Amino acid sequence: MSITTLSPSETQSQGRGDGRWSERQLVAIGLVALAVALALARPLLPEWTIVRVEEGLYAYADWLDAVFNFVRDDLGLIHLTRAIAGGLEYLLDATANLLYGKKRWPHLGPIPWTALAAAAGVIGYYLGGWRLATIGAGTFVWAALIGQWSIAMQTMSVIAVAAPTAFVMGLVLGIFAWKSRPFEAVLKPVLAILQTLPFFTYLLPAVIFFKVGPTAGAVATIVYALPPMILMTTLGLRKVPPEAVEAGKMSGCTRWQMLRHVYIPSARTEILVGVNQVFMLCLAMVVLTAFIGMPGLGGKLLAMMNSFKLGRSFEIGVTIVLFAVMLDRLSKAWVVKQPEHFERGTPWWQRHAYSLATFGGFAIFVLIAFLVRDLPNVPVKAVGDPEAEGSFFGYVGGVLDEVGRKQSLTQGKGIDKAIKGFLGIDSVQAVTEWLRWFLNVWILIPFRNALLWLPVPTVILAIGALGYLVGGARSALIGAGFFAFIASTGWWDRAIITLYTVISAVILATLTGLPLAIWASRSEKWANRILLFCDTAQTFPSFIYLIPAIMLFGVNDVAVVFSILIFTLVPLTRYTIEGLRSVPVELTEAADMAGATRRQKLWHVQLPLALPTMAVGFNQAIMFAFFMVIIAAFIGTQDLGQELQRTLAGTDLGKNFVLGMCVALMALVFDHIIMRWSTDRRKALGVD
Amino acid sequence: MNSEAPVISARNIWKLFGADPEKYLASMTPGRGFDEIRADGYIAGVKDVSIKVSRGEMLVIMGLSGSGKSTLVRCFSRLHEITGGEILVDGQDIMKLNENDLIEMRRSKMGMVFQSFGLLPHRTVLENVAFPLEMRGQDRHARRERALEVIKLVGLEGREEYFPRELSGGQQQRVGIARSLAIEPDIWFLDEPFSALDPLIRREMQDEFLRLQDMLSKTIVFITHDFDEALRLADRIAIMKDGAVEQCDTPDKIVLDPQTPYVAKFTEEIEKARVVHASVLAKPLNGTTPEGEPVPAGATVLQLARQLVNESRTTLPVADKDGTVIGTMNRQEALDILLGEG
User: Fold this and answer.
1) How far is Cα of residue B197 from the mean position of the Cα atoms in its chain?
2) Could you count the other beta carbons within 10 Å of the beta carbon of residue B56?
3) Does A381 have pLDDT greater than 70?
């Protein structure tokens, strides 16, 4: 009855059509049967297969500590890293001085907020007209007026160092990976692990090797932002059209000239997409460095949430989101911005109109601030004091230089009251209370207990069976092997709790996201709106998603699951809409002409064809979930994230790394299985 | 042509794609065909080709896509390293050049035009054209002068500050041509330069190209898969199939006397009268002095059609540009060609 036609080989591998099972399915069924048998025989199993192995089979952490100590002290890596830290610190101090007036070289700052806002506005206008000008200037204006200028600039001063460094390093490593296949072969798996390692595992080594404070934060941020820059550079260089390369060679380029004048400019688009990624990841990470005590937007947000000041948390959240959207939109506009020609004889000031306007706007406000600073009795503090001398001009000038504490427009307390008032309404409270009760009692806790009840070999075999079904022996070995490793570390129950949180959140997100996406994809207008929303929401640093969760549910398991749910909803919805929209029109028309009802069309044509793309979204959702569940340690979980967070206080590098690897390996197993399935399915369907 | 040494001289060159092709070529039994080589896991891009290009000659390489014509021309400029054989350019074995000498040769002697133009998207027309000059380190002022000169030559005046994406396909290819001419190369490679263009523009560009060639008289290797284009432009045509040259001859000979069944099939549909010139049909005088008005040697049979039909003589004298009679042409033979019974 199926409408999609299956090729003979596919029919065989899928075991459909002729009603018999394929070899793969038989093996998988066998493995599952074994797993079930083990679960049923639970009372008979030796104890270590059931409860958590406290010690772990092997003392990985101790071994790793020995290795780290050897590398750090005996090989003297610490001296190298401290030297690098010194250089970085110098740069960080310089940007800190310029942006928020830290008393360090070059002793010029702080730059008045108006000057930065003006410059950002002109750049925004150049890149994308009035819309981006508003976003550019508006972000800075908001940060200043809401009274978060200095913490925002603390954050930006780290990004101002980390992003260019990550860009340069990524570009250079990307070029090496493109030039040398062996180097790339080594680099690729390292990058894959780096991309799945939980961020706590970036932080502790950074602290230990690079000094506490902004330097460690900057290092962790740089390393975190590096992988996509490397990958995009390599990709871009590979995609340079062969004729451009040949034209370069025939023009007699030396190797350096080829790289400088042909390859890198031709790979511009991909490299700039890499730059966009660098900005976004830098912002996401720099906010999280709050966990190692870095001041800035993240630090403030963490403090505010800790003391349950929801109003201020909300305002800081808005600031972070604005910066994220600004960096994303401006850098994306830069990707598509093409050079435009000037007629010959255009005067130089016209050619450089935008640079001049940027510089001019910047200079004017710096000048104003400078003049005002030198005025006697600057009445900045004298708000509404009629006696103050020259109060109007002095006051306006002073505000243009720096928004004082009393002048900020923050409504933290008011919002706080409003939120708490809203949540206090009986009906609202009833709903959240009920949700909390229902999810906890009927879904989350039973599910968690069931998973924890299962004997260790059962879980490993089940994962192996899934791997075998999708990708054969190799996938089965990867899946079972990685989980066996986790069991051997002694962190099995923590890992299972992590896994349970991820799975339940993703399932709940699927149940909400899929219907939403299917509904939205029916109308072009709504599909576009929701896609735009998802695009924007995806740029928000993950930390932000904790805010509504805590607001609604307070500090507990449900808030954790809820924050992961809304975080993973974004990729799920987005890829489902894109998958459904990419179904060729001929096919839906063919279904219409075959007399299919809407439901039949959806089930038999649209969903089967959209499934590979949807799987990519599902995969991304799981990756996001693994990332988020670790951050949620902040709320108070009992999983690997909590253990990881605890290691931050000490110097337990080995333990930190083992825990990080547990998270990374679980994520990699899902990544491998889902992506494998998606690629095979695409091939079978003949779509690309 | 003239008697001096050929500009490009290729002897038994091979280009194989696959793992360790040199070793395979050394151990291969001679005379293996394209399909047999493919069965061994290699692709013969160029298969045992020997060809010479004389100074000032325009050699057109023809063939279907995948026949190896682009590969062959890339061997001449060493964009591809050949697997076996020898290529001499101006008497120099290019496979023996080191990297710097190779770069120097390309900077001073060779220009190349590409099918999809190969323009650098981030540079203006002027900067694209000046690119080879910049690479060899010419100063800003001199390269600007020269670039403006070639831009004017290809008729793109006033577009110097445009970016490639702001130009039409034909204009972009003019930029490609201007760039390849900027260094005043002796040897000019054109790889299907007009294939990506619309038929009308293509025609216009061919005329433009002929005008340039009249002025510049370069040694040219021109690739096309369009037989009409080859006939319009070529001094000699080399027809390729499966990496090998099937026949290399003047257009007249290719049409009148195809050497292999493949070439015969290729030329079947061609209207021979448009290709064959009187000079080719002229038989030696053997001391006799033919009478009457001679026909010009450079005229095609088609151009002589009216005269051939109205004429009553059985043989017609053929005279070259200076008016010297070089032979006689059999009228019946020419009429057979005109009527397609040759």
Assistant:
1) 18
2) 16
3) no
Domain A95-337+353-401 and domain A425-685, same fold? Reply is: yes
| CB of B119 less than 8 A from some CB of A | yes
Joined together, the tokens standing for residue B62 give: 């023809």
**Listed residue (B320, B261, B41, B120) closest to A339, CA to CA:** B120
Give domain limits for chain A: 95-337+353-401, 425-685
Q: Are A456 and A49 in contact (CB under 8 A)?
A: yes
Least confident of A403-417, A462-476, B107-121, B305-319: A403-417
- Going from the C-alpha of A136 to that of each of A151, A167, A289, A585, B192, the distances in angstroms are 18, 22, 25, 39, 48
The pLDDT score that the predictor gives to residue A151 is: 92
User: A522-543 pLDDT, tens per residue?
Assistant: 888 999 999 999 988 888 888 8
Q: What was the pLDDT predicted at A13?
A: 44
Neighbours of A427 (CB within 10 A): 7
Predicted confidence at residue A57, as pLDDT, reads 67
CATH number, span A95-337+353-401? 1.10.3720.10
Q: Which CATH number fits domain A425-685: 1.10.3720.10, 3.90.950.10, 1.10.760.10, 3.10.20.440?
A: 1.10.3720.10
Q: Give pLDDT, residue A197.
A: 85
Distance (Å, rounded) from C-alpha B211 to C-alpha B233? 11
Percent of chain A with pLDDT over 70: 91
Q: Are B34 and B240 in contact (CB under 8 A)?
A: no
pLDDT tens for residues A52-68?
555 666 778 888 888 88
Residues 339-378, chain A, touching B (beta carbon < 8 A): 339-344
pLDDT of B294 > 70? The answer is yes
Angle (CA) A428-A307-A537 rounded to 5° is 60
Look at residue A294 in the predicted model and tell me its pLDDT.
Answer: 86
Query: Which residue reads 């490993």 in tokens?
Result: A460
Per DSSP, the residues of B109-128 read TEEEE-TT----TTS-HHHH
Residues of A numbered 216-255 whose beta carbons fall under 8 angstroms of chain B's beta carbons: which are they?
Answer: 241, 243-244, 246-254
Chain B residues whose CB is inside 8 A of the A343 CB are 161
Higher pLDDT residue, B251 or A46? B251
- What does A534-598 look like in DSSP terms, one character per residue? HHHHHHS-GGGGHHHHHHHH-SSHHHHHHHHHHHHHHHHHHHHHHHHHTS-HHHHHHHHHTT--H
For residue A386, pLDDT beyond 70: no
Q: The dihedral of CA A302, A306, A312, A313: what is its sign? A: positive
CA dist list (Å): A551 to A311, A327, A635: 10, 27, 12
Tokens 């206080």 correspond to: A649
Q: Which domains does chain B have, with CATH numbers?
A: 55-82+97-270 (3.40.50.300), 274-338 (3.10.580.10)
Q: What is the pLDDT of residue A234?
A: 95
- Contact status of A260 with chain B (Cβ, < 8 Å): no
Torsion of CA A195, A198, A204, A210, to 10 degrees: 20
Decide if B121 and A266 are in contact by the 8 Å CB cutoff.
yes
Q: What value, to the nearest 5°, has the Cα angle with vertex A670 and ends A667 and A676?
A: 135
Mean pLDDT of the residues in chain A: 85
Strand order in the sheet with B110-113: B110-113, B187-191, B219-224, B58-62, B236-241, B244-249
